[in-house]
Amino acid sequence: MTDAEVDDAGRHADSPKKSWRERLPWTTVVPLVAVLALLGVTGRSLGPVANVIVAALLGASVLAAVHHAEVVAHRVGEPFGSLVLAVAVTVIEVGLILTLMSSGGDGSKASLARDTVFAAVMITTNGILGLSVLFGALRHDIVYFNAEGAGAALATVLTLTTLSMVLPTFTTSATGPQYSNAQLAFAAVSSLALYGLFVLTQTRRHRDFFLPVTPSGDVVDEDSHADPPTTREAAISLGLLLASLVAVVGLAKAESPAIESGVAAARLPATFVGVIIALLVLAPETLAAVRAARRNRLQTSLNLALGSGIASIGLTIPVIAVAGIWLDGPLILGLNSLHLALFGITALVSVLTVVPGRATRLQGAVHLILLAAFVFLAAVP
């Protein structure tokens, strides 16, 4: 045996064999199993045991989506990584809204888009932002972010929400809190234009505004603590991310009869279904944002939170406006007085949080209390 053969044999003998868990981790298995389960439950009524299994797969799919989103984000860098998850989740959210609206049913379907999108705005600006600030500050005392990027994103969220859901309450061309066809077309085009301009600003013209910063204000362009994944690994994670998100929303749709029955049994308003949909769909982004905040990357958390709010309105409203041509019944977008008050205080508090460029656990707690008030008053209006 030659020296090269001896070295090769020794190298193979010394190298540890990977276990099946290392070769096929749970983050790979869960999305595939969840998609198969989705195919099995689609179009069928679920019993109690099946509902429990689907709920467990739903939660596991959320965790898998977070893992693969972080892999993709590490490969492409910020702010593109945050954009990937925000757009993917929003596209599937739109599909879920359209599916439920087209299924007919009670009159609450006319306001499902408004209820879901406004819940998404409140969850992103108060829930994801509040949790990120709180968990980041608990570990690092004071958390820092780029006020220019966060301020631009917040201004876009507030403008989109006002155009799409505040103004319809006060217009007079159509009966009730809804737009006329011309007004809806204007709102849809404006929303899409604002979303496009925001993405261009975030990824091209002023990308540095949306990168993490140090306490001294220096921009952190890339994570230096670990090598980025290979292109092949990132491509696999992107595919598994999309599979996880499809499974999350699809299994949530399969669970929707149980959710609606539970809402009715608990004597909650039918509009509370929109809040539950938004909570389920935004769960992956919430976990990803909290993890980033704990690593002292609050700007990444804000990119996820505010970017999700922008995508939720900027993509949903134009699609719903076009789909309204085929959907029967009115499309109610205007907020009621209670929601207007909550949106007003959220806008004010968010501005005060973003302007300094740094935050403490107090700001996080304030936002979380506002979210708790929104969820509670949605259940007990």
From TrEMBL:
Membrane topology: Multi-pass membrane protein
Positions of transmembrane segments: 24-43, 49-68, 80-104, 116-138, 150-170, 182-200, 234-252, 264-283, 304-327, 333-355, 362-380
Subcellular location: Membrane
Domain Sodium/calcium exchanger membrane region: 52-203, 237-378
First-listed, main subcellular location of the protein, grouped into a coarse class: membrane
InterPro entries, alphabetized: Alkaline_pH_Ca-Antiporter, NaCa_Exmemb
Keywords for this protein: Membrane, Transmembrane, Transmembrane helix
Domain of life according to the entry: Bacteria
Coiled coil: none
Keyword Isomerase tagged: no
DNA repair as UniProt keyword: no
Any Pfam family the entry gives: Na_Ca_ex
Protein name per Swiss-Prot or TrEMBL: Ionic transporter y4hA
